[in-house]
Write a structure and sequence with these properties.
single chain, 67% helix
Length: 162
C-alpha cells in the first residue's frame, strides 16, 4: 500500500517541496525543513515517507493515550485505570482515524497534529507531578513548540496556551 497511488494535486506539492527543501523557501509551510532531510535520508522513496508518517501518527497517539490514562488514574487516586493496555490501544486507534482522512504522503497538517498531540501528552505528564518537573520536559516541549510554529505559524497561539 505504501508504494501505490499518487495524488498529484496534494502529494505532488509536498514531495517537490521536500525534494528541494533547502533551496526553495517559497513553500507556505515550514514542514519541508522537517520532512526534507528525512526524505533525502530514505533516498527519496515515497513509500518510506508514507511509512514514516504512519509510525509518527501511531507513536504520538499512543503517547497521548498512555499519558492521558496515567493522568486520569492519578487524578482519580487509583493505581491504574482499567485495562491499561486495552484502553491505550483503543485511544490510539481512535486518534489514528485522522490518518485516513488525508493524503498518504505527510504534509504540514500531519506535523501540526502530531506536534499538538505531543504537547498535550507532555502537559498531561506535567500535571501528574506539578511540584517537581524534570528538566527534559521543558526541553522537549520547547523543541516541539518550535517545530509546531515552524510548520504552521498560527499555531503560536496553541504554544502560548500550553
Amino acid at each position: 500500500m505504501a508504494n501505490r497511488g499518487f495524488a498529484v494535486q496534494d502529494e505532488g506539492t509536498y514531495v517537490l517541496s521536500y525534494r528541494w527543501w533547502s533551496s526553495n523557501p517559497y513553500f507556505v509551510s515550514g514542514a519541508q525543513y522537517f520532512y526534507g532531510p528525512l526524505f533525502s535520508a530514505v533516498n527519496e522513496q515515497i513509500g518510506a515517507l508514507r511509512v514514516l508518517r504512519l509510525v509518527m501518527v501511531i507513536a504520538t497517539n499512543a503517547w497521548f493515550a498512555a499519558s492521558f490514562l496515567r493522568w486520569l488514574a492519578h487524578h482519580r487516586g487509583v493505581s491504574s485505570f482499567g485495562h491499561t493496555a486495552t484502553s491505550t490501544a483503543l485511544l490510539t486507534a481512535a486518534g489514528g482515524m485522522a490518518y485516513l482522512w488525508t493524503p498518504l504522503t505527510p504534509g504540514y497538517y500531519d506535523l501540526t497534529a502530531d506536534a499538538s498531540i505531543a504537547l498535550v501528552a507532555l502537559m498531561l505528564s506535567s500535571l501528574r507531578r506539578p511540584t517537581r518537573l524534570p528538566a527534559w520536559l521543558g526541553l522537549v516541549a520547547g523543541g516541539i513548540s518550535f517545530l509546531l510554529v515552524l510548520t504552521k505559524w498560527p499555531a503560536v497561539l496553541v504554544v502560548l496556551l500550553v
